[in-house]
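Record format v2
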Amino acid sequence: MEEKFNKRLREAKGRFLHFCVDEVTLSNGHISTREMVLHPGAVAVIAVTAEKEVILVKQYRYPVKEVLYEIPAGKLEPGEDPAVCAPRELAEETGFLAEKWEKLGTFYTAPGFSNETMHLFYATGLRAEEAHPDPDEIITYEKIPLRKAWEMIRTGQIKDGKTILAILWIEQMITD
Amino acid sequence: MEEKFNKRLREAKGRFLHFCVDEVTLSNGHISTREMVLHPGAVAVIAVTAEKEVILVKQYRYPVKEVLYEIPAGKLEPGEDPAVCAPRELAEETGFLAEKWEKLGTFYTAPGFSNETMHLFYATGLRAEEAHPDPDEIITYEKIPLRKAWEMIRTGQIKDGKTILAILWIEQMITD
């Protein structure tokens, strides 16, 4: 089923995204073009308090022009270990430190047009310290009971894919 | 928290992706740049048989260079109603027609760098007809019991975000 790269028809680079249009040959011999955005990869952290509340950050997302509820997340630095990046992002965005870290899994957010790989961690044993977000991130956080989070998913108040995925994953783990 | 557009620093267009680098002013007055990919939006369909099996397609995804298990999905045509696109994509990729359609929700797959909006549908009352994929899509499908699908998520055999989200959503609905 593999698709063979023939040539790059177009590309453009930003600081972290790399847009490409490639000509490829499909396994059935057809020639086609594929458009994609190369991404450095990211981590996301579902942090849950002893009272079964999930820590959600609120942040304006320029591509969708609205403020979203999301689990803490951030891009990997070049060569950075996701297990190092995850506690850093949680602390930067919320101030929380966690005693216990569990890797839940790794998934692709949008494999139809991007290689973004998301490493998902589950953090418990939380202790609050001071947040220290990047200067170009304006972020607040809220603690939401897990059952309320599911309600917010069903009613469309939580709209971020990785956040929905992570909340449902934890609910499923608890149910199992 | 809104970010004000100042000017477009760079852009590049493909057939369906539009890559942009914009200069913006944050709500705290800081100037920053935002990179993003504009996308036409998409639908995804979690189709479940009477035997509680989910229909997963297998397809090579060029951006990630591997064959993935995914729920049937596809991009919206300009102006297309998601409720029209969803049955079309299910039929094209798998041949299945569904008697009952339920809209589960709408979410952003990667709002940190794209505006892709995914409309998620739940299809039941399935009847098999012949598949008729696009000439540049090479697709097969499998029926996977829902409980096995959760096992495949935990072991990393299912790696696509929207597919994990949709399977967990259905599991949660059934549990509720």
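Helices of chain B lie at 82-94, 146-154, 161-175.
Chain B has two domains: 4-38, 42-175.
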